[in-house]
Amino acid sequence: MNLSRKGLLLRGLVVTIALALFLGSSIGFWLRSQLRASLPQLDGSLTLAGLTAPVMVTRDGQGIPTIVGRSREDVARTTGFLHAQDRFFQMDLARRRAAGELAELVGERALAADRAIRIHRFRAEARQAVSLLTTRDRTLLDAYTSGVNAGLHALGASPFEYFALRQTPAPWLPEDTFLVVLSMFVALQEPDGAYEATLSTMHDVLPPQMFDFLAPRATEWDAPIDGSTLARPAVPDAHSYDLRSRRRGRPAFELPERGRETVRSGAAQPTRLALSGFRQSAPTSSDTFDSGGAEGLGSNNWVVSGAHTADGLPLLANDMHLTVRVPNTWYRAVLEWPGATGTTRRLVGVTLPGVPALVSGSNSSIAWGFTNTYADWSDIVLLDVDPGDANRYRTPDGWREFERHDETIRVAGQADQPTVVSWTIWGPVIGPDYRGRARAYRWVAHSAERLANTLTPLEDATSVLDAFDAANGLGTPGQNLVVADRDGRIGWSVYGAIPRRVGTDGRLPASWSDGTRGWHGWLAPAEYPRVVDPPSGRIWTANARVVGGDMLAKLGDGSYEVGSRATIIRRRLDAQERFTKQDLLRIQMDVSADFLARWRELILQTLTPATLNGHQAREQFRQIVETQWSGRVTPDSVAYRLTRSFREAVVERIVRFVLVECYEADPSFDYFTVRRRESPIWALVTERPQHLLDPRYSTWPDLLVSAVDAVIDEAGTADLRTLVWSDYNVTAYRHPLSAAIPFSSRWLDMPLRPLPGDLFTPQMHWGSAAASERLIVSPGHESEGIMHMPTGQSGHPLSPFYAASHQAWIDGDPTPLMPGPTRHTLMLEP
User: Fold this and answer.
1) Which of 132, 185, 423, 731 has the fewest CB atoms found within 10 Å of its own CB?
2) Bridge partners of 427?
3) Strand 331-338 relative to strand 344-351: parallel, antiparallel, unpaired?
4) Does the pLDDT value for residue 137 go beyond 70?
5) Cβ–Cβ contacts within 10 Å for residue 112, how many?
6) Which of 217, 302, 295 shows the shortest CA–CA distance to 571?
């Protein structure tokens, strides 16, 4: 009986296990079949309603499409079709990020980000931009929109992300294309005026000399293309600000966690991507939805005239630095349609999924590229609220009531969240400052009439000046635009709309209520800063100050980068008379540690025999920095990591003291929005004024030695030789959902790999931020051009194109700009 019962139990267990295995395999088979159903069709033919003639789509081994159509509208329709087939979830995130509608897709974890961005009412603005389109542009946008929805509908199943989120993708609307453009404003500029608010607090709290010193308009790293120089403020004397005496006997102040030079990460906590944002501080292990800025964002570009190239043709190089996620921001494509008099119009480069235009590349007549300007694209307006009626504020035309807009934030799985947004004639009401003053925010991003002109901005330009006339005044995020044309000319100008400021330079918040200050329209193209065919035959930009004088005054200051990359690039360009494409690629891949070389020397000066006596860890620290420094930022460099960490520790010790009164006055104050802080910090550590030294240190060398000790203590190891740079700077490129789906990282993310570079090197790798593309091209000679792109063309992990270009991007292989041999051909029929 017992044996019989045991036999039955055993048979039952076997049946249960078999059933579980069968169900598991069945579910796995079903999941895989659903995933495969969401792959796009690559060969054969499909019907695409709205086409006026057949369109041929060929793809090479990396999945790069060449679209050959009979009209620009047919090409736009097909571009939308391919964007949706390969990248719809990415497009959806971009439009929702700008509209403040992420929580509707992913739930309450996006609620804070939605609330923060909803004040801008970008969906309403995008609708208005659609209503302002010309007939030609509306036709083009409608064709693209129809193509997107057709591409989504033609998939056998929704993109896999919607299955994971248990959601259904919403159809694409014409206004969504403008929301994608606005999402780039959120990525590249400040949605909240943080830098101007920082300057305002400093201006209020500090003596004028100290304010000018700590918020410099120039640094020793400036490398402007016009050769202009600006005076750097001197260290204020004790008569101006004897902070050491003022603080003696006061409690020591520690920086808040946000007030740190960087957020550190380790190998066990690789960078995770915020699902919604286009940028985030890096490295970080945060899974939160972030609306704010990152120091890691930037870009490099330059052009050299034909007088300085081996073949006599001008050359353009461009690499745009963004948060690299999976899939990448850009989608490569070649777009072709008939031109006038039997010619062929051809655009080659990168597109932005959600938008029908070529973003960067060549149209055979011109080649162009971008870097973020960090000029001043916004102003905080102090509001004069009626003391007797809090619903009114003063304007140049008298008292006016605030506009109140009822917004509803939908949250997946929860009740809707109502919110009220207040607006003024200048823009949305943002939170009060630390003094309780009501504020509004004037931002270029709020200009629908400018936004409406952004669909196909540069594709018809045939010369440098044509390009500038087309780009100056567009409602796009302000960019440094560099152009080379087929006639051999090169130039720089600004892509975007520059406000015409009256009565203010825009650096500090001010009241505009009496009409003496404000924006009075926009600069005309003829008024824009432009540099064309400089005598040197070289132009470069890298997010730092590009020009001076009147041109700089028109651009204003939105916290320019310190200039390390610009200086290195200028040095490389000046050091050579003739260039090939491979020469420019070497500059793009440059990881010279020029920026930290002087900090290394400071370490060697600090760790004297007296400070080393009896301190083995300090001795090892010095020995590594002295003997293992290669002058390059390589993944295995311990010397670079120790030097970088030392600099951060010194910066934090200085900032927590010299800015203490700002931090105490304003709980939201953050000095690290001032990107040019290197200059005043370096002046302090070299000139060593006693009146600006934290009282917890007797001398400046004491502060510097304490920074060394802090690096040693934080290392948590007795052997500093194990502290390689790649363990500190974990370069991780992840899919937005991989952190939320268990065991999916190996399937969805790019493999973790140690990479060279830092924030301060032309080849920039910093957490999840890196070059989102690398382009080198001479207009009209695209077949000889070079292009890199991380990850791959497809957003589908089962696609052969999911990571097809990633390895070449990592290795810096000179892969071609034009697609390779055709591997797939799809005919789209009317």
Assistant:
1) 132
2) none
3) antiparallel
4) yes
5) 14
6) 302
H helix or E strand, kind and range, residue 609: helix 609-612
Q: What is the DSSP string of 259-311?
A: SSS-----TTS-----SS-S---SS----S---S--TT-EEEEEEE-GGGBTT
Pick from 111, 104, 127, 131: nearest CA to 179? 127
Phi and psi, residue 347, nearest 5°: -115, 135
H helix runs in 64-102, sequence order: 72-99
pLDDT at 8: 60
CB 471 within 8 A of CB 482: no
* Tens-place pLDDT, residues 794-816: 999 999 999 999 999 999 999 99
With contact defined as beta carbons under 8 Å apart, do 17 and 797 qualify?
no
Q: How far is CA 66 from CA 151, 346, 456, in A?
A: 16, 10, 18
> For 697-739, what is each residue's pLDDT tens digit?
999 999 999 999 999 999 988 799 999 999 999 999 999 999 8
| Residue partners of 406: CB distance under 8 A and separation at least 6 | 418, 419, 420
Number of residues that this document lists for the chain: 830
Measured distance between the N- and C-terminal CA atoms of the chain, rounded to whole angstroms: 75
List Cβ<8 Å contacts ≥24 apart for 387-394. Answer: 393/424, 393/438, 393/513, 394/513, 394/514
- 248 or 789: whose pLDDT is higher? 789
Question: Which is nearest to 759 in space by CA: 674, 675, 654, 637?
Answer: 675
CB atoms within 10 A of CB 391: 12
pLDDT digits (tens, 9 = 90+) for 58-80: 999 999 999 999 999 999 999 99
